[in-house]
């Protein structure tokens, strides 16, 4: 697991929390922020996965 995967996962978790808080408090802006954080986190996680795959392919 590389730093992009870790940071991506952390960002997704923060996004889920913000989304849940936004729903619970009826705050659409907070909910949207959470959705966006989750997307950013997923993208960063995908970059990390691609790096890992490239590294693994280089070993073979």
UniProtKB/TrEMBL annotation:
SUPFAM superfamilies: Hypothetical protein YjbJ. Residues 1-60 are annotated as: Disordered. Residues 1-17, 24-36 have a biased composition (Basic and acidic residues). It comes from the Bacteria. Gene3D superfamilies: YjbJ. InterPro entries: CsbD, YjbJ_sf. It holds the Pfam family CsbD. Residues 4-56 form the CsbD-like domain. Belongs to the UPF0337 (CsbD) family. This is CsbD family protein. It comes from Paraburkholderia franconis.
